[in-house]
Amino acid sequence: MFDKLKNLFVEDDGKDEPSKDNQKDAPKSREEKFVAPSTSTPKPTAPTPTPKVPDSTVNTPTNTAGAVNDKFMNVLIKAINDQDLPSFDYLEFKESLKSLSKMQMDEQTRFQSAFAVGKTMGATPQKLIDAANFYIKVLGDEDAKFQQALMNRQSTQVDGGKRELAQLEKNIQARKKQIEDLNKQIELDLKKREELKQQVQNASGKMSKTKNDFTVTYNHLVGQIRADIEKMKRYLK
Fold first, then answer.
1. Residue 135's CB: how many other CB atoms inside 10 A?
2. Residues 161-200: pLDDT tens digits?
3. Which of 36, 73, 167, 182 could form a disulfide with 178 if both were Cys (CB 3.0 to 4.6 A apart)?
4. Cβ contacts of 100 within 8 Å, gap of 6 or more
5. pTM score of the predicted model
6. CB-CB contact of 203 with 164 (8 Å)
7. Number of structural domains, the chain?
8. How far apart (Å, rounded) are the C-alpha atoms in residues 217 and 94?
9. Which domain holds residue 152?
10. Which residues contact 35 (CB under 8 A, 6 or more apart)?
11. What is the C-alpha radius of gyration for the chain, rounded to an integer number of angstroms?
12. Residues 200 and 167: beta-carbon distance below 8 Å
């Protein structure tokens, strides 16, 4: 049923090979459901003679634009599948539309033909629209869960790293005023500062990409449903 429901909203051209994100196993926790695993702070490496200040330039991920993400699509489709209403509703109506899409008929005729099938099972335009709005609410609940999971990960992985980075900066400035015996410790903190800065910026980029992927996927799915609602209002009387 999951694959059948997903095919109603996703066009499968068969060109892309499945990725690890396409696995259908249910996530173990809410955060694992949406956000990639965090990385731990690297352990300090042993100091070397003659301290040198490392280059502060770090590479920051630049491609954080959102895209329809199959992993998030699976999560959202599963939420709809778990809340599938009984009898003939919007999902069955969309399935009928999908079947009729291969036939030579205009959009209005296709909507009316699909509705004719549902009408025999007690469907009305208002019932179909109400069901579609219900599924938008289901997706909205998933959006709220995602935003909370992202906020939790932001607090631990990005904000926490920034606080630690700020503290390291203070430590570095203090140790620079100490005697030569502290040079090895200063070098250690300088290296850790750059490693942590890279980690924080990478984590920030990943969070942006994750958020944008979900948003685009969510808007893509909701947009389809809303478009169908408008067409049902226009064509079904």
1. 22
2. 888 888 888 888 888 777 777 678 878 888 888 888 888 8
3. 182
4. 110, 113, 114
5. 0.55
6. no
7. 1
8. 19
9. 66-235
10. 149, 150, 153, 207, 210
11. 26
12. no
